[in-house]
């Protein structure tokens, strides 16, 4: 097998990376994305008047569930015992956007970046699904890692962005 953290073995075939020798540490990842929409659609969401129900509550649960299932959704991604997942939303009325932030924690041998990114993606898709009868032109946009900590590679902070203070 190839040495190092690669998803390819010595023959070039896909494999799951062996993280067995990595230290168990507390790991955190924060991801963010947004759904762009008309201001009237955003108002419907915020006022709780979308015909399919409470969009933010359903999107929050969908994002949490997706984070827990990431190992089943993303090929070669390790299944992890997640200790905490939170999904938060911030409306940007001027831009006609709903920002989504996921925060995922674990104590383990590999990070939770994929879980945080998956949580944001599925929360955004859920918002789209629940609102598509009102507006089909919504755009899911700018899904990205904001911060990660723990593990051998240390701390990462996206330049110019910090996780939301949700305490």
From TrEMBL:
Substrate binds at residues 76-78, 114-115. Its EC number is 4.6.1.17. It comes from the Bacteria. Pathway: Cofactor biosynthesis; molybdopterin biosynthesis. This is Cyclic pyranopterin monophosphate synthase. InterPro entries: MoaC, MoaC_bact/euk, MoaC_sf, MoCo_biosynth_MoaA/MoaC, Mopterin_CF_biosynth-C_dom. It comes from Neomoorella humiferrea. The active site is at residue 129.
